[in-house]
Amino acid sequence: MASGNGILVLYAHPAPQRSRANRLLAEAARDVPGVQVRDLYQTYPDFYIDAAHERKLVEASHLLVFMHPIRWYSMPSLLKEWLDVVFDARWAYERNEGALKGKSFWLVASTGSGIEAYRPGGLHGRPFADFLAPFEQTAALCGMRWIAPLILHGASGLDEDKLQAHVALFRERLSNYAASAPTAAD
């Protein structure tokens, strides 16, 4: 299946008005040519997802960026609903020849706790990488290329300089992915 030539950012924050970090990341993504940002909570406030339309957007993309805060060691509920509805087994991965094979999966997420909370004896009791398995396995099952996640720990308490540096890093990486996008001739 063709990989598409765009980047689709699936932005899912249930309370964007309270998010400094994710809001800035979404704004940065909107400024990168070749990137489409889908604000899922704005698009689907009733949680009724147009699977056929979303699949067309995914099919036209070579990179899917899942951008959200980590909530209870996972993704926000609307993004989980989006995955359940859009990534139908027959479409997404059946016999590893599904629509997602060859596309890339990039998790760009934030946490409220600092990295020190993600260790034995810390608030969350285990390394943060332990919580990435469901994301990574979703990519693997669908035949997608897993890109190392970009995680912003302690987002709510981060000073402005560190936040802006993280946003700049994200914008740079996203721009590099956009610049290296496969063309129709590839």
Tell me the strand order in the biggest sheet. Answer: 2-1-3-4-5
CATH superfamily: Flavodoxin domain
- Kindly name the structural category: alpha/beta
The arrangement of helices and strands along the chain is EHEHHEHHEHEH
Determine the CATH topology.
Rossmann fold
Distance between the termini: 12 Å
Helix count, DSSP H or I runs of 4 or more residues: 7
| DSSP, total strands | 5
Helix content: 25-40%
Top CATH class: Alpha Beta
Radius of gyration: 16 Å
Task: Write the CATH architecture name.
Answer: 3-Layer(aba) Sandwich
Approximately what portion of the residues adopt beta-strand conformation?
15-25%
What's the structural blueprint in terms of helices and strands?
Blueprint: E1 6-11, H1 21-30, E2 35-39, H2 40-43, H3 51-59, E3 61-69, H4 77-86, H5 89-92, E4 104-110, H6 133-141, E5 145-152, H7 160-179
Parallel strand pairs: 1-2, 1-3, 3-4, 4-5
Short description:
The protein has 186 residues and is α/β, with parallel strands linked by helices. The chain has helices spanning 21-30, 40-43, 51-59, 77-86, 89-92, 133-141, 160-179, and strands at 6-11, 35-39, 61-69, 104-110, 145-152.
What does this 3D model show about the protein?
The chain is globular, with a radius of gyration of 16 Å. 35% of the residues lie in helices and 19% in strands. The chain starts with 5 loop residues before the first strand and ends in a 7-residue tail after the last helix. It is built from 7 helices and 5 strands; from the N terminus they run βαβααβααβαβα. With 186 residues, the chain is α/β, with parallel strands linked by helices. The chain has a 5-stranded parallel beta sheet, sandwiched between helices. It has a single domain, classed as Flavodoxin domain (Rossmann fold, 3-Layer(aba) Sandwich). The model has no long low-confidence stretch (mean pLDDT 92). Helix 1 runs parallel beside helix 7. InterPro entries: Flavodoxin_fold, Flavoprotein-like_sf, KefG/KefF.
